[in-house]
Amino acid sequence: MELKLRPWRETDIPDIVRYWTTLSGDDAERMGCDLPRFPSAEEYDRLLREQHATPLQDTVSFYSMWISDGQTIGFASLKNIEFGIRGEMHLHMWDAGRRGRGIGGRLFCLSALDFYERFQVRSIVCEPSAGNILPNRMLQKIGFPLAGSRYGRSSELSKELY
Predict the structure, then answer these.
(1) Cβ distance 34 to 159 under 8 Å?
(2) Is 157 inside a domain boundary?
(3) Confidence at residue 151, expressed as pLDDT on a 0 to 100 scale
(4) From edge to edge, which strands make up the β-sheet containing 71-82?
(5) What is the four-CA torsion angle of 12, 1, 31, 10, rounded to 10 degrees?
(6) Count of domains observed in the chain
(7) Which domain holds residue 18?
(8) Which residues have CB under 8 Å from 39's CB, separation 6+?
């Protein structure tokens, strides 16, 4: 199995929008998403196009597309980027048939290394929902112990957890 990643392209935007706008209620619940907080498909498309056109040193959001055997299967995003300082990483494998097969850890590491280099950040925070078992298990398997739990939102599209 060949795994690689690449920076997002404008042609990836419809797939990213489709991923978010067609989430099942169960998937949204598992990830802690608050679907009513999501913009419409048209608005999300517009926002992503603006982000894609923003120079790297000024952007606050970036996507690293995950490729397995030539097929795009998901992405890692770096959000709330402060160039040279920090960012917040989110992981999304939209090909459900590839989840739980041990490839997420490799793709996570490739993405994290790319984000560190590309944005010269000193720290990256990754906070999957506590109820989202697969990414939490993957992070522990590759050597990232649970550093803590907190209440609140991990992103602007997350549910507030109490």
Answers:
(1) yes
(2) no
(3) 52
(4) 3-7, 61-68, 71-82, 86-93, 123-126
(5) -10
(6) 1
(7) 3-141
(8) 47
> Residue 73 is encoded by which pair of tokens?
């299967």
- pLDDT at residue number 158: 47
Report the CATH number that the domain containing residue 44 is assigned in CATH: 3.40.630.30
Tokens of 138: 């993957």
| Residue at 92 is within a domain | yes
Question: Residue 78: which of 114, 40, 35 has the closest Cα?
Answer: 114
User: Terminus-to-terminus CA distance in the chain, angstroms?
Assistant: 41
Segments of the chain with pLDDT less than 50: 152-154, 157-162
Site of tokens 């619940």: 29
For 30-45, letters b (16+ CB in 10 Å) and e give bbbbeeeebeeeeebb
pLDDT at 16: 95
- Give a three-class secondary structure readout of 31-70: HCECHHHCCCHHHHHHHHHHHHHCCCCCCCEEEEEEEECC
Confidence at residue 24, expressed as pLDDT on a 0 to 100 scale: 85
Cα 30 to the center of its chain, rounded Å = 15
Residue with tokens 């040279």, as numbered in its chain: 84
Predicted local confidence at residue 162, as pLDDT:
42
